[in-house]
């Protein structure tokens, strides 16, 4: 049976509720949509996996508030039910010098922790962002309320010029880095 991975493209398109961060002319919901789509395609081209997206189309809007948007994403994954939940995000900070990739988990020493390490290595090796580490944040709704192994990936900082260029120009690279990390976590050889 295929391993079921639910890919949550964090946030809605710009101009909607729960639209997320922006910086350097980029919008979080646009980047997470495309990176998630690439990742789902990579996984669905491998018979060992079945991937589903929270936002199958660029115009998909989930929820009518931040809270209901998060609830919708979690409910889709729980109802499927997925084996793994990966939420994709982009970061922002008032200090434009802050950059790098972070992966958030509910608890250390778990399967999410081991998968996060592999995904982090895959991203930083593929696109060259800084490794800011695996971080604990049990308050995040999508990590608290999902019933499967879950992690939240902050690809990079929209507010940092260098990260923003990577997020704009190498969305496929971010997805491929995550795909490599997932393959390594399962001890699989990438098919592409």
Question: How is this structure best described in words?
Answer:
The chain has about 190 residues and is of the alpha/beta class. It has a single domain (about 5-185), classed as Zn-dependent exopeptidases (Aminopeptidase). Helix content is about 40%, strand content about 25%. It is built from six helices and eight strands. The protein has helices at about 30-45, 65-80, 110-125, 140-145, 160-170, 170-185, and strands at about 5-10, 20-25, 25, 50-55, 85-90, 100-105, 130-135, 150-155. The strands form two sheets. It has a six-stranded mixed β-sheet with strand order 4-1-5-8-6-7, with helices on both faces. The chain has a two-stranded antiparallel sheet with strand order 2-3. A hairpin with a 2-residue loop joins strand 2 and strand 3. The longest helix has 17 residues, at about 30-45. The chain starts with a strand and ends in a 6-residue tail after the last helix. The model has no long low-confidence stretch (mean pLDDT about 95).
């Amino acid at each position: 049976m295929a391993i079921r991975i639910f890919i949550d493209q964090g946030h809605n398109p710009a101009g909607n509720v729960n639209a997320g961060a922006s910086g350097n002319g980029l919008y979080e919901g646009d980047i997470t949509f495309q990176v998630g789509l690439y990742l789902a395609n990579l996984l669905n081209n491998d018979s060992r996996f079945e991937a589903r997206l929270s936002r199958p189309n660029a115009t998909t809007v989930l929820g009518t508030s931040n809270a209901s948007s998060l609830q919708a994403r979690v409910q889709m994954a729980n109802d499927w039910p997925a084996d793994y939940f990966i939420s994709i995000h982009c970061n922002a900070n008032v200090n434009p010098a802050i950059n790098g990739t972070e992966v958030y988990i509910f608890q250390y020493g778990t399967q999410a922790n081991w998968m996060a390490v592999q995904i982090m290595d895959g991203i930083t090796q593929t696109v060259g962002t800084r490794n800011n580490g695996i971080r604990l944040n049990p308050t995040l709704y999508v990590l608290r309320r999902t019933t499967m192994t879950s992690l939240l990936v902050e690809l990079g900082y929209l507010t940092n010029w260098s990260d923003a260029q990577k997020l704009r120009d190498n969305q496929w690279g971010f997805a491929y880095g995550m795909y490599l990390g997932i393959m390594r976590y399962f001890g699989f050889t990438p098919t592409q």
